[in-house]
Design a protein that fits this description.
- The strands form two sheets. A five-stranded antiparallel β-sheet has the order 6-5-4-1-7, with no helix packed on it.
- It has one domain: SH3 type barrels (Roll), CATH 2.30.30.
- Helix content is about 15%, strand content about 40%.
- The chain is of the alpha+beta class.
Length: about 110
Amino acid sequence: MERAILAIAAAVYLFSGNAALATTGPGCFQVVNVASWDVLNMRSGPSASNPIVDHLPPGRHGIISQSGPCIPAHVALRSRWCPVTHYSGDRTTSGWVKRHFVAPSDCP
């Protein structure tokens, strides 16, 4: 009985939306190829014509977690769009960034 309670408690904790647990290890990005005074625009879809949903300043952007494969697969990596989730404080935003402006990084 005690084991069942512990298992349930662990499952609730693991799936409670804790961003740090969800993003530990590989699978994150850091902003690159953006001037220190500028920001990377996160878009609502995989196109520069989609609305901006967030701004990611280089070096001060919180956690950017990759949430799926970058597309389209038939173009050069730098030309692809990647779906991401941005965790900054208690705010979470999902959107797309151009792969040219992010580099792989271990998640904290």
